[in-house]
């Protein structure tokens, strides 16, 4: 057997179902695991085969689903399923959208997110090398309850697929449990000879209990026409598991995450507690990254060599540089430079850029701010719409007052600046290099380089104010006791 198959003529992804068991206003195929929609996972696996045509068949919430599909893959062909129900009709309309095809046609589903390119390629390779008319992707399971059974003849070829309820009925009527005892099940994923598929679908009717046009009927028609019908068995049941409700969504999501974390650990990443670590499929991690418990890495987050992330940290689309430390932090669409230090209890909003050796410390919030190399925002403050120069130290409780009620304004703080506790920068304002601010300063005017700015007011003490104005309070009682002792 060759290691790789020829590219199929088409891959058809069925994504027309309503998914009523999800009990959701969101179409089933748009629910996500691992940071990607179910149908997004399916499309990416299909694309790996490099088909001549990639088709998605839609119906339920058509406009919403199509918008998502084309955003994921602009070259996708959209086919609409009409009023005739059934997978056979869906595939037929998928074929009609691209015209007649010769060669292999693969049929898969938009709710089977763990199916890998490797398994799809193996299915197509088996199909083409054996010269099959139809090749079914099957799996062996300990308990086949609810699944269609693969029935083979003495030579190992597939003779039919018997649904679970039909196997039970036959066993009840005949006393023969052979079909019920079969553990090889149908995944519903196939490779077809395109010409045979088109000819057979034209003969499939809706004359059955459900009134549907069944894709499985093609197998019998292909056999009757002398075609070879076989099955390729995957040893990984989870790859062919579909999502029908939110329990299955969570189960497959957890399994996908287990596989993702395992892959990264085998690539040289230390994950202290994989059971509490969630990593999306598009995240990139370098060797010798350390991930501590209760960490979630989402979107296109990238972590460079030697960085330590967590515990209790969530990053969305964040770039973290080499040897940086990020702990107990929520960050989105930000850049954290090499050897930088973030956290604990830090909120980093979009547009934040922290330079090399920089620091954003405890109980700090940042947004749309450039923080220079070696600059430190250590604790209890807010920096928004600002530029902060190299090696500047921002004191405790500082904020940039960037919003005037209508517009946002920018604060520029130079290099080697030292700001006192509880300084407020009323934007727009500029602080020159090497300048200082005194504690409690409210900066409304630009500060020249090397200057000190303060708001000096003599301290005023009003004796007995609490005793007179807060008589009867706990503070007044404490003050009176202190006075009596003196």
Automatic annotation (TrEMBL):
Record's keyword terms, sorted: Acyltransferase, Cell shape, Cell wall biogenesis/degradation, Cytoplasm, Magnesium, Metal-binding, Multifunctional enzyme, Nucleotidyltransferase, Peptidoglycan synthesis, Repeat, Transferase
Domain MobA-like NTP transferase: 11-140
Subcellular location: Cytoplasm
Entry GO CC: cytoplasm; membrane
Sections of the chain in a coiled coil: none
Cofactor note (record): Binds 1 Mg(2+) ion per subunit.
Function: Catalyzes the last two sequential reactions in the de novo biosynthetic pathway for UDP-N-acetylglucosamine (UDP-GlcNAc). The C-terminal domain catalyzes the transfer of acetyl group from acetyl coenzyme A to glucosamine-1-phosphate (GlcN-1-P) to produce N-acetylglucosamine-1-phosphate (GlcNAc-1-P), which is converted into UDP-GlcNAc by the transfer of uridine 5-monophosphate (from uridine 5-triphosphate), a reaction catalyzed by the N-terminal domain.
Subunit structure: Homotrimer.
Protein name: Bifunctional protein GlmU
Annotated positions binding UDP-N-acetyl-alpha-D-glucosamine: 14-17, 28, 81, 86-87, 109-111, 148, 163, 186, 244, 349, 367, 382, 393
Gene that encodes the chain: glmU
Requisite cofactors: Mg(2+)
Region entry Linker, spans: 247-267
Gene source species: Enteractinococcus helveticum
């Amino acid at each position: 057997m060759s290691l790789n198959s020829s590219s199929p003529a088409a891959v058809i992804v069925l994504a027309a179902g309503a998914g009523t068991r999800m009990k959701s206003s969101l179409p089933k195929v748009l629910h996500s695991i691992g940071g990607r929609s179910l149908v997004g996972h399916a499309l990416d696996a299909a694309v790996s085969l490099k088909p001549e045509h990639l088709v998605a068949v839609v119906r339920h919430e058509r406009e919403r689903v199509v918008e998502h599909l084309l955003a994921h893959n602009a070259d996708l062909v959209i086919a609409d399923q009409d009023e005739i129900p059934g997978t056979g009709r869906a595939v037929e309309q998928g074929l009609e959208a691209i015209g007649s095809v010769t060669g292999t046609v693969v049929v898969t589903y938009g709710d089977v997110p763990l199916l890998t390119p490797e398994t799809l390629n193996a299915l197509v390779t088996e199909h083409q090398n054996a010269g099959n008319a139809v090749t079914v992707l099957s799996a062996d399971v300990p308990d086949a309850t609810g699944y269609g059974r693969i029935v083979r003849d003495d030579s190992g070829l597939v003779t039919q697929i018997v649904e679970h309820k039909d196997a039970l009925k036959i066993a009840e009527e005949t006393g023969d449990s052979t079909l019920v005892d079969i553990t090889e099940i149908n995944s519903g994923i196939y490779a077809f000879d395109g010409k045979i598929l088109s000819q057979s679908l034209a003969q499939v009717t809706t004359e059955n209990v459900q009134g549907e046009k069944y894709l499985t009927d093609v197998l019998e028609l292909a056999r009757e026409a002398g075609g070879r019908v076989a099955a390729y068995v995957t040893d990984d049941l989870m790859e062919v598991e579909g999502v029908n409700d939110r329990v299955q969504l969570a189960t497959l999501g957890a399994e996908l995450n287990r596989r993702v974390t395992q892959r990264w650990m085998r690539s040289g990443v230390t994950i202290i507690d994989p059971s509490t670590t969630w990593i999306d499929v598009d995240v990139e991690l370098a060797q010798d990254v350390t991930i501590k418990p209760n960490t979630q890495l989402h979107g296109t987050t990238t972590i460079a060599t030697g960085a330590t992330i967590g515990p209790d940290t969530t990053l969305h689309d964040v770039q973290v540089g080499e040897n940086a430390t990020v702990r107990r932090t929520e960050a989105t669409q930000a850049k954290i430079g090499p050897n930088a230090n973030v956290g604990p209890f830090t909120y980093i909003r979009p547009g934040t850029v922290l330079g090399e050796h920089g620091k954003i410390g405890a109980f700090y919030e940042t947004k749309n701010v450039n923080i220079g190399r070696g600059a430190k925002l250590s604790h209890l403050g807010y920096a928004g719409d600002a530029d902060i120069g190299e090696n500047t130290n921002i004191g405790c409780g500082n904020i940039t007052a960037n919003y005037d009620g209508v517009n946002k304004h920018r604060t520029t703080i130079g290099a080697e600046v030292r700001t006192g506790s509880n300084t407020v920068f009323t934007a727009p304002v500029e602080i020159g290099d090497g300048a200082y601010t005194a504690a409690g300063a409210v900066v409304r005017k630009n500060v020249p380089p090397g200057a000190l700015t303060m708001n000096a007011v003599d301290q005023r003490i009003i004796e007995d104010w609490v005793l007179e104005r807060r008589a009867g309070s706990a503070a007044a009682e404490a003050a009176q006791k202190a006075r009596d002792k003196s």
